[in-house]
Amino acid sequence: MTNKRKKVAVGLSGGVDSSVAAALLKEEGYDVIGLSMEIFDGPEDMERPERDSCYGPNEKEDIERAAAVCRKMDIPFHAIDLKKEYSRHVIKYFRDEYLAGRTPNPCIVCNAKLKFGFLLEKARESGIEFDLFATGHYARLERSGDRILLKKAIDLSKDQSYFLYALTPQQLSQTLFPLGPFKKAQVRGMARSFGLETADRPESQDFMAYGDYTYLFEKEEVREGDIVDGQDRVLGRHRGIIHYTVGQRRGLRLSSSSPLYVRTIDAGKNRIVVSPKENLWSKALMATDLTLIAAERLDRPRRVKARIRLKHKEAPATIYPYENNRVKVQFEERQLAVTPGQSVVFYLEDVVFGGGLIEKAL
Description:
By secondary structure, the protein is an alpha/beta fold. The protein has helices at residues 16-27, 59-73, 83-99, 106-125, 169-173, 184-194; strands spanning 7-11, 31-38, 53-55, 77-81, 132-134, 139-144, 147-152, 175-176, 206-208, 225-228, 234-238, 261-266, 271-275, 281-292, 302-307, 315-322, 326-336, 343-348, 351-361. The chain folds into three domains: 3-211, 3-Layer(aba) Sandwich (Rossmann fold), CATH 3.40.50; 218-275, Roll (SH3 type barrels), CATH 2.30.30; 281-361, Translation factors (Elongation Factor Tu (Ef-tu), domain 3). Helix 3 (83-99) runs antiparallel to helix 4 (106-125).
């Protein structure tokens, strides 16, 4: 099957990256169609932010921009209504995690369940036919025997493999990442050469408009409570546990002779426990919901490089299999602010071995 006979659906956000991904595939001879997700189900009267977000009131403009890109390239475009699915699988997860005192990562859940899941299912159910799916993510795929490996992008400053570790082998086998071999500056240059109106659009980095997600919670769910130290001494008051994460210093409004940081979030007692920075270091963690890409199973300890958040520098570690799809991660050196609810992703050089959800620091 030649490229000209392969139909590729491209997930379009209205931004430069996904637009260039579509243009590159068309240039290579693929039969390209554009797909966008309709997910925003928030207040109609919300003020439009200057900067775009993944979930916010600018969605209509983003979809119109994606449609315009498709008209420019003379390819079909479809917007797929996923509001119910997004509310059920992303917003609910986001709320539940914060109310449990954990810090969620909605992009990982959205990729695995919405963008690479329900979007394609509902598109096909509506009669849209395609063989492959592509996005503007900065990542690479490589076949190794009968396995598809997920690898880091060439542009490490833009690498998004961390957000993609939860994709299944089946999802990866039907996916293309056209931007993996390119630097961001090259992508913007290509957008200009293709004459795309998205060429100079700023990047969308916020999950929610203005970074403010308080409207997702009922007033009674966001209650003030005590800020305490390790000896249960009350040092101040917090404005609701959803506003805090492990390692946070700003916004505590505490008077102290030395800087204090959030060490744990006690949802049961509705309190924040703070401590000096030296108490935030951990030599190990437990993770659950283990997903593997580069191996069928974890049946022995493996040495990896582990990343405990997107901007975290990968650290040498050994991972040990536990029952119930859990794994212990033992670091060679202590790590700062291991955060329950975030994902830990394991790398073998530039290959994603797998990852899981951080359950607790050890």
